[in-house]
Design goal:
about 160 residues; Heat Shock Protein 90; two-stranded antiparallel ribbon
């Protein structure tokens, strides 16, 4: 697998820092956000499979799995939803709140979000709550319907 190193943009680093410090007392929110993202991916794949049967790849049962490995100190959330291409990963994982960044920063500084951390998902940044609890975040994915094409691995240290 070819490795490419990409850096978060300055505004992304600023937002991550703000999130971690603003929501520090609500660390558990990361799990709900990951499950929500997995559910969205499964829903999208299910819908797309109605007109594009290759999305199914002989898989008719839509799944979200949560696996805790205490010995390894890892928590894995997996799904068989739409998956990501390299371009999707750069756009969705490498760019925070690609729409509404200013609104997000303002909201993060407000008392409303501090008291109701579940609101962060509406800004498209819920995935980044994983950085509140993890030393390293890894996403392994392959676009649904891509057949034998190689997938992607996106990794970042907190």
């Amino acid at each position: 697998m070819t490795v490419e190193k990409m850096e978060f943009k300055t505004e992304v680093k600023q937002i991550l820092d703000l999130m971690v410090h603003s929501l520090y007392s609500h660390k558990e929110i990361f799990l709900r956000e990951l499950i929500s993202n997995a559910s969205d991916a499964v829903d999208k794949a299910h819908f797309e499979s109605l007109t594009r049967k290759e999305i199914l790849e002989d898989e008719k049962d839509w799944k979200i799995k949560i696996i805790a490995d205490k010995d390894a100190g890892t928590l894995t959330v997996s799904d068989n939803g739409t998956g990501l291409t390299k371009e999707d990963a750069i756009k969705e994982l490498g760019t925070i709140a690609h729409s509404g960044t200013k609104e997000f920063i303002a909201a993060m500084q407000s008392k409303e979000v501090k008291d109701n951390p579940e609101l962060i998902g509406q800004f498209g940044v819920g995935f980044y709550s994983t950085f509140m609890v993890a030393d390293k975040v890894t996403v392994v994915s392959r676009k649904a319907g891509a057949g034998d094409k190689k997938g992607i691995k996106w990794e970042s240290n907190a």
